[in-house]
Amino acid sequence: MIAGQSHITSIAVEQAADAVFAYMSNPEMLNRWSFGTWETERLSDGLTKGKSIFDGSETLVRIDADAARLSIDFHLGASPDRLVPRIVVRVVPGEHVGLSAQQSILTFIAWRAAGMSDERWRRLTASHEFEVVLLKSFLEQLPK
Q1: Which of 7, 21, 69, 115 is the most exposed place for a label (fewest CB within 10 A)?
Q2: Number of other CB atoms surrounding residue 39 within 10 Å
Q3: Is pLDDT above 90 for 27?
Q4: Are strands 47-51 and 6-13 parallel, antiparallel or unpaired?
């Protein structure tokens, strides 16, 4: 079993925190970087539906973004009444950690659900490790 009930991965980005937050909280961008919600479709009531790149299973996502805290909760589930905040993205302004204001830290935090197999948990953690690298590339191409 892969140890732990949570996984955290971070990366430094050459982009201001407000731009990183805007990108990460935009549901239109999910299909560019999220392997769990590929081929997204916007639904009503702030929901987005996407398919797993691994097995085609569908997941609903509701993004709960807090601009004041630069924190984004991704509520996930199979139905609108069963969404839970299992993924959190936090953007840390560069100047908070000794970097410039035109830099930031992008952090993913994921919690393992009780019924998640070791294989599925490994896919999620590996995906997040790669997704932050992919996001760094996209974010650093945005206008500054």
Answers
A1: 115
A2: 13
A3: yes
A4: unpaired
Task: Provide the pLDDT for residue 45.
Answer: 85
Highest-pLDDT range among 34-38, 53-57, 101-105: 101-105
Count of CB atoms situated within 10 Å of the CB of 60: 18
- Tens digit of each residue's pLDDT (9 = 90 or more) over 80-116: 999 999 999 999 999 999 999 999 999 999 999 998 9
Tokens encoding 31: 């299909």
For 2-31, b where at least 16 C-beta lie within 10 A, e where not — what string? eeeeebebebebebbbebbbebbbebeebe
Token duo for residue 127: 């995906």
Q: Which residues pair with residue 62 across a beta bridge?
A: 47, 75
